[in-house]
Amino acid sequence: MANDIESWNIRGLNNPSKAVEVRKLINTQHLKLVGLLETKVKSRNTAMVQRRINDWEGVNNNNQDPRGRI
After folding, report:
1. How does 1-11 read in b/e, with b if 16+ C-beta sit within 10 Å?
2. Residue 34's beta-bridge partner residues?
3. Residue 11 near residue 38 (C-beta atoms within 8 A)
4. Low-confidence ranges of the chain (pLDDT < 70)
5. Residue 50 sits in which domain range?
6. What are the CA-CA distances from residue 27 to residues 32, 34, 48, 59, 61 (Å)?
7. 3-state SS, one letter per residue, for 5-70
8. Domain total in the chain
């Protein structure tokens, strides 16, 4: 039985190649829920990064730290 949930400490998701890695993981593992930790995505880049990962819905903590830190 496959896992539908995964978490990944993926520091630096602003880098387009990291988004490609996330998309591959989601597609190959058929994931339903992914927790991306320490992404360092700045608030101004959030929408762009979400589009790179095929418009998945997401939540972030940018209201507490606009640099995307935990």
Report:
1. eeeeeeebebe
2. 6
3. yes
4. 1-2, 55, 69-70
5. 1-70
6. 10, 11, 19, 20, 25
7. EEEEECCCCCCHHHHHHHHHHHHHHCCCEEEEECCCCCHHHHHHHHHHCCCCCCCCCCCCCCCCCC
8. 1
Model confidence over 39-48: pLDDT tens digits? 888 888 888 8
Distance, CA of 35 to CA of 59 (rounded, Å)? 10
Contact (CB, 8 A) for 53 and 21: no
Q: Token digits for 13? A: 């998701």
Q: In the prediction, which pLDDT does 28 show? A: 93
pLDDT at 70: 61
Give the type of residue at 66. Answer: P
Distances (CA, A) of 69 to 26, 28, 62, 64: 23, 28, 8, 9
Question: For residue 11, what are its two tokens?
Answer: 């520091």
